[in-house]
Amino acid sequence: MLFASRCFLRCVLLTVLIVVGASATLSRRVCADTNVVTSGAWIVDGTDDTGTNPVSIAMSAKKKAIGSFSELLISYNSGGTGVVDVCTIKGNGEIRLALLPPGEFGGAFYMTGYWDCDEGFVPAMMITQLEVRVQGGQHGAVELRGRITNGTSMEAKDFLMKLSPPGAKLTRADVSYNLYATRDICVDQTTRTNADDFLAVRMAANYLSPDVQENDQARYVKITQKVCVSFVCVTKKKSFCDDLVNEDGYIVGSPVSLRGGVLYLVHRQPVPRDTPTLQVKFTRPSSSSVKPQGFVTASADPAAQNVSLWANWSDAKPSYRKGKKISKFRYSLQVAPANTSSCDQEN
Asked: Is pLDDT above 50 for 28?
């Protein structure tokens, strides 16, 4: 009965998230309101999130306040393809990455969220303050430092996102933060065995059918064997896949530790749109202490984010006291071209 109630609540919550994220799925920004930074090959603009319930980000550069914006658009001048949009960041915590043309924006990344004993699902961390710094040179990175919070129970004052120069094969953003409890926290253990209690990081996208979708497969790769002699190690990896269907339910049947692996929300073909494959690589928590899990909410809305795939933190405690450190989080968000990598085999 508890499981059924939890599934129903997750359907309701994801339906709300679908509505919130729908308008963002449809478009790329073609213009922005205010230039925050132009340096080297990078352009950072501030604009308004046109979705539901936007969250303002207090922006600064070179230690000078610039203003507040609910969305940032980051563009890159690659030379050959000119200035192209490669990243959007919203105050509500949504992060999207794109490859250099012909790539385009697709699914989104979200940071930590969890199920609270009293409040139910507490959504991902919001971004409320950012300082922008562009590293020198044509091939330098953009650094964004600031504060994130879920507005009720957790915050990090040392959030850092480092966006590397994009390419046609890979665009990467490295994220890190130390998360602290801002009040006493009780983590709901109801579906802990199903890897659905403390989401370290989450990916979201659209899947209605093979003809209407941004991503069509959940995939993870784990190390099944590692043998080291002196400084030389030989590893064996196995990939596991679940093709998406537009039906309510969990994606991964029996969640297991990634154990050195990578979590993917795959796009197998560059159709119906050339949206990318999303992937997350973990440093902290280690991949051995996270388990992949996902959920699909059936939808008829072609703009819906009705698919979620996340890494559940296995070592999360049942409770945390106010002011105590929860954990260090450090991971890499990446997008890559659509691909047909083999599945469910060892190599």
From this structure: no
The single-letter DSSP state of residue 22 is: H
| Cα–Cα distance list, 124 to 57, 103, 155, 196, 310 (Å) | 15, 26, 11, 14, 11
H or E stretch covering 169:
none
What pLDDT digit, counting tens, does each position of 55-104 carry? 999 999 988 999 999 999 999 998 877 899 999 999 999 999 999 988 79
For the structural domain made of 2-336, what CATH number should be given? 2.70.98.10
Beta bridge partners of 320: 185
Q: Please state the three-class secondary structure of 56-112 as a single string.
A: CEEEEECCEEEEEECEEEEEEECCCCCEEEEEEEECCCCEEECCCCCCCCCCEEECC
Peptide bond into 285 cis (omega under 30): yes
If we measure between CA atoms, which residue out of 106, 82, 84 comes closest to residue 96?
A: 106
Tell me what the mean pLDDT of segment 40-49 comes to: 94
Q: Domain-by-domain residue ranges, the chain? A: 2-336
